[in-house]
Each structure stands twice: as structure tokens, then as C-alpha cells.
Amino acid sequence: MKIYTNLLEQDFEAEKPDEKYVGDITYVWTDKGWLYLAGVEDLFNRELIGWKISDRITVDITLSTMDMAIGRRAPKEGLIFHSDRGSQYASNAYRELLKKYGIRQSMSRKGNCYDNACAESFFSTLKKDVIYGIRFKTKKETRKVIINYIEGFYNSRRLHSSLGYKLPREYINDYYKNEKKVA
């Protein structure tokens, strides 16, 4: 497996949408066993633009997550995607997917979670807001809670201090309105 240079170097600011994405995978326990959530976040507006919940932690979870992000945004070539050094992100299949879309791959330094702090922060927030303190009886129930949190709250109703206390979708909409005024 190939390990890539850290292109992000803890620079978590993006000047425009689809310039820098970060991704990671987290684990969620249920009474029926583990679920795995992979996510792709656009650093411009902190929106989770791709995500997948799976019973298995294989490369397929990361491929599906990036496919969703690309389908929602259609980024231009040159985008940086940053992750940890997990086998799913270092796999040939994942590298080929990024190459197909002209996405530059970046990886954290060995053992340095701060290099992917924004992705880690999303999962920490998710767990504090809806996972900790709840005993999930079924995987179906858990999936529903996570999906409702991502789409019904985090992306659409949660204010972000890094965005001047704006909503992710509000922040990106403001950007595009300003772009039209300039053009």
C-alpha cells in the first residue's frame, strides 16, 4: 500500500468549495454489533458531503463515500483529499478512484491525529450529540439516528464557529451569491 505526502499540513482553511476534502471512519456500537461510518467533509463549509454506514469496514465504505461526495459536488481536478493512513484509503481501488477524478491524495503523518483534526472533530461532535448515552438496540435504528443527524441537523441546522456561526449550506450559498455579483 502506498502512503502519500501530507499536502494539507494542518491547513484546514479553504478559499472556495471543493478545494480540500477530509475523510475518516468511525465505529458505532449497537446491541447487534459494530457499524462503521465513513465521511467526507468539505473544509470550505464544513459540510459532510459524502457518507456511508456499513456493517463492514472494507474499502467499499470509503469508495461509496467518495462516490457520494463526487456525485453531489462534481469537483474539478486538483482537489486535495486528506485522510489518515488506513488501509481503505491506501488501497489500490481508492487510489484509482481519486486518480480517475484528478483528486490529489494526502495522508496524515504516522500516528498524528491532529493532521486530520477536522474529520476527527466531526465524529467527536456526532458522538457527543447523539451516540454517547444511547443504547442502540438495532443497526436499523442506529442508521436512522445517524442519517437524521447528518442531513437533518449537522449540514442544515448546526451553526459552525469556523464559519462565523453560519450554517454549512448558508455559508456556501453566500459564497455562490457573491461569485455571481463579481462575475
From TrEMBL:
The record lists the organism as Acetivibrio saccincola
Give this protein's Gene Ontology molecular function annotations.
nucleic acid binding
Protein name per UniProt = Integrase catalytic domain-containing protein
* Top-level taxon: Bacteria
| Stored InterPro entries | Integrase_cat-core, RNaseH-like_sf, RNaseH_sf, Transpos_IS3, Transposase_IS3/IS150/IS904
**Which Gene3D superfamilies would you find in this protein's record?**
Ribonuclease H-like superfamily/Ribonuclease H
GO term, biological process aspect, one:
DNA integration
Q: Where is the Integrase catalytic domain?
A: 13-176
